[in-house]
Write a structure and sequence with these properties.
Elements lengths: L1 E5 L3 H12 L4 E5 L2 H11 L3 E5 L7 H10 L6 E5 L4 H9 L4 E4 L4 H16 L10 E3 L2 E4 L4 E4 L2 E2 L4 H11 L8 H8 L10 H12 L5 E6 L3 E6 L2
Parallel strand pairs: 1-2, 1-3, 3-4, 4-5
Antiparallel strand pairs: 6-7, 7-8, 8-9, 10-11
Helix pairs in contact: 2-3, 6-8
Length: about 230
């Protein structure tokens, strides 16, 4: 896997190159926001890890320019700015995930690999092919979710929500992140609308062997039924 790391901190560059390199991730480094898009275009990486605080152009400007040029590589934002507002700005600009500093290196690797799997439409890196929780099964080939042998009938918003949770089994996904995936670009919709989708989805998950849990202060989590 090829990772483009856009980060101006030299010690961080060295640490991530060494650590991720041991996990067979080829890390290419760019420390300047003004040069990042050109390097992105030339390398065609599998994933981009992008710091928000960069010289010349900040991370949000780099991301906006890349998306405007049609570069669709999945992006993981890395930043010490961890407020909800910053996360929303990053996701609105086209980021796929967000990891505040300081972060655990194992979590960083896991998120990078998850983004690559998602973009390639396969779930093989960790033996998850297809993804399954309880009786639910996600088929990347057609984007459908099944309850054992039967296709689970879901609205587009319910499907988007359930897919997002199945991509992170056993981990809470924030309400803000789910809102961006379920209501993309719909700025007039209130955040509470995600709770309505969760309520409807819960009813459809009865009998599937999967439970949608609310984790106060963290978001929502999907796990196998006890």
């Amino acid at each position: 896997m090829k990772l483009l790391l856009v980060e101006d901190d030299l010690s961080m560059q060295i640490t991530l190159q060494r650590t991720l390199g041991r996990q067979r991730i080829d890390v290419r480094v760019c420390g300047d926001g003004a040069e990042a898009v050109a390097m992105w275009r030339a390398l065609e990486p599998d994933v981009v890890a992008l710091d928000l605080s960069l010289p010349n152009l900040d991370g949000l400007q780099v991301l906006a320019q890349a998306r405007a040029e049609g570069l669709r590589t999945p992006v993981l934002l890395l930043t010490a700015r961890g407020t909800v507002g910053d996360r929303i700005m990053g996701l609105n600009a086209g980021a796929d995930d967000y990891l505040p500093k300081p972060f655990d290196l194992d979590e960083l690797e896991a998120r990078i690999r998850a983004l690559r799997r998602r973009s390639h439409g396969v779930m093989t890196d960790m033996g998850l092919n297809p993804q399954q929780i309880g009786g639910l099964r996600f088929e990347p080939a057609n984007g459908a979710i099944y309850n054992r042998a039967d296709l689970l009938e879901l609205t587009p918003r319910e499907l988007a929500l359930l897919k997002a949770l199945m991509m992170k089994p056993g981990h809470a996904v924030t309400k803000e992140r789910l809102f961006e995936l379920v209501f993309p670009g719909e700025t007039e919709v209130q955040y509470e609308a995600i709770e309505v989708v969760v309520y409807r989805l819960r009813k459809k998950l009865v009998g599937t062997g999967a439970v949608l849990m609310t984790m106060r202060g963290l978001g929502y989590l999907l796990r196998p039924e006890a």
